[in-house]
Specification:
Length: about 280
């Protein structure tokens, strides 16, 4: 009997800059989870802070790889999606999820990667945002930041302060159908964290930790990867979000004093041992 949880990870592969699959794969592995990557695109670097990056759209490969996996009758404890390269990719993800769910219990974790700090990422169009909302409607858990939450709700980022977090996660749950972990929520100066609506209990939990130094590129991917790993290892939504927030905090403590260029992301690799230790304790 297979004991190692398995996750299909549908994200871009950016060669330099630490985001998406270069975070998702090592984090899940360190947590004792098998990560099976389905890359949506290959970029030479991510798009935050770099210009002139290459962009190889892998939509056709994605469709073929999904078909192959379905033919092999593979099952996954979770499908975890992130940065998408085209509208068709989101439609493919929806039908892949539907097919998997017909065969076995598969948790759909959708990080609706679209933007940050009130600004849409360069490669995203309004049509892609609509496709993202449609795909996220099929999710069991979504992990938006405040910018993405505003886009999903069709509201202005400026009209949704941190203090509206509880109201936002309830509205984003689509009447309690999906769980929501809203990231980047700061309820007092010097703190950051997440607001979690758990569809199992219908309750909202607020998680707050110290904000360390400055923002780092890729922390959204780091947070959602740990969250996904903890969920497939059987943690509750709140415990999974707490573990994710604590790991991001530890990585920020390690990275901040190094004064690295922000676009190089968070220096998480030397910290992966913490995730492995946590697993041994559990
Ligand atoms: O971390 C989100 C992300 C993922 N993938 C690519 C990105 C970004 C954010 O800038 O550019 C390619």
């Amino acid at each position: 009997m297979r004991t190692t949880p398995r996750v299909a990870a549908i994200h871009d592969l950016s060669g330099f800059g630490r985001c998406s699959l270069t975070i998702v794969m090592p984090v899940l592995s360190a947590m004792g989870v098998q990560c099976c990557p389905l890359p949506t695109a290959y970029l030479s670097t991510h798009t935050g802070g770099f210009t002139g990056n290459t962009f190889l759209d892998l939509t056709d490969q994605l469709a073929e790889a999904m078909d192959h996996w379905l033919c092999l009758d593979l099952t996954f404890e979770a499908v975890y999606t992130g940065f998408m390269g085209s509208c068709r990719q989101m439609e493919l993800c929806r039908s892949f999820l539907t097919s998997l769910k017909e065969k076995s219990t598969t948790l759909a974790v959708v990080d609706p990667v679209m933007g940050d700090n009130g600004v849409l990422y360069r490669t995203y169009t309004t049509k892609m945002c609509r496709a993202m909302a449609a795909m996220a409607a099929e999710a069991d858990v979504i992990v938006p930041n405040r910018t993405e939450a505003a886009l999903l709700l069709g509201r202005k980022y400026e009209d949704l302060p941190h203090s509206a977090a509880e109201e936002m996660v309830r509205e984003l749950s689509l009447g309690g159908r999906r769980s929501v972990v809203l990231t980047g929520v700061s309820l007092q100066p010097g703190k950051t964290g997440a607001a979690c609506f758990d569809r199992e209990t219908g309750t909202v939990a607020m998680i707050q930790t110290d904000f360390v130094g400055r923002s780092f590129h890729g922390t959204g991917d780091l947070f959602a990867s740990v969250l996904t790993g903890a969920l497939v290892r059987g943690e509750s939504l709140k415990a999974a979000a707490e573990q994710a927030a604590e790991f991001v905090r530890q990585c920020a403590i390690h990275t901040f004093p190094q004064n690295l260029p922000p676009r190089e992301g968070i220096d998480f690799e030397p910290m992966l041992g913490l995730l492995a230790q946590e697993r041994r304790r559990a």
